Amino acid sequence: MTDIQRLDKGPRMSQAVIHNGLAWLAGQVGTPGESVTDQTKTVLSKVDDMLAKAGTDKSRLLQATIWLASMDDFAEMNAVWDAWVDPQNAPARATGESALATSEHKVEIIIVAALND
Fold it and tell me: What SUPFAM superfamilies would the database entry show (predicted)?
């Protein structure tokens, strides 16, 4: 039986869960009130940090789920995403619109990645 490792765990949630060669990251959000561009940059920086903590990196992404407070921000978020994502190893991805934690949050990204061999 493989152990389950939880990173940055709290009473409600862990920021990442590692099991069976995979890392599941909790939804990462930016600073409320910032622009979509700045929130997306903050989110992806947090993703990079959490992936490193889990023992992997963005070249090992399997899936990304992106929630936007408004689909009107799709192009703005994508401009940051496209500059960040490894074009040779882009994950399966879905993007949708949803009410987020507060009305000032504009972007939330959830990641699943394979661990480094």
Answer: YjgF-like
Which CATH number applies to 5-114: 3.40.50.1970, 3.20.20.150, 3.30.1330.40, 2.60.120.200? 3.30.1330.40
- The whole-angstrom separation of Cα 8 and Cα 75 is 32
The C-alpha atoms of residue 115 and residue 57 are separated, in whole angstroms, by: 8
Question: What b/e readout covers 62-75, taking b as 16+ CB neighbours within 10 angstroms?
Answer: eebbbbbbeeebee
Q: 24-52, pLDDT tens digit by residue?
A: 999 999 999 999 999 999 999 999 999 99
Cα first-last separation, the chain: 19
Give the angle subtended at the CA of 80 by the CAs of 25 and 87, to the nearest 5°. Answer: 75
Q: What is the DSSP letter of 60?
A: G
CA 95 to CA 71: how far, in whole Å?
Answer: 9
- Mean pLDDT value across the chain: 96
Torsion on CA atoms 39, 103, 75, 26, rounded to nearest 10: 60
